[in-house]
Specification:
The chain has two helices and four strands. By secondary structure, it is α+β, with helices and mostly antiparallel strands. It has one domain. Strands 1-2-3-4 form a four-stranded antiparallel sheet, covered by helices on one side. A hairpin with a 4-residue loop joins strand 2 and strand 3. Helix 1 packs across helix 2. The protein is globular, with a radius of gyration of 12 Å.
């Protein structure tokens, strides 16, 4: 499991990223905003960013949701 610190203008939180290589997916959890999501390896790049944004938009404002979605997409591509 990787733990990353996301520092935005209005939100600072820890992002927990677990890669399940056997099932080829990621589980991302952000306890500070009561958010978690699971997605397959097949979802990456712009499609992943958009998918994450749509889920985060329900909890955060537009700018924070977009920034956090881009960070998570970047971090999961590095793992």
């Amino acid at each position: 499991m990787k733990i990353r610190q996301s520092n935005g203008d209005t939100l600072t939180c820890k992002v927990y990223i677990h890669e399940n290589k056997k099932e080829e997916n990621f589980i991302v959890s952000i306890p500070d905003i009561f958010f978690s999501i699971q997605f397959d390896y097949e979802l990456y790049g712009e499609a992943l960013t958009e998918h994450l944004y749509l889920h985060l938009f329900n909890m955060l404002d537009d700018k924070e949701a977009n920034e956090l979605a881009m960070r998570i997409a970047q971090w999961t591509s590095e793992v």
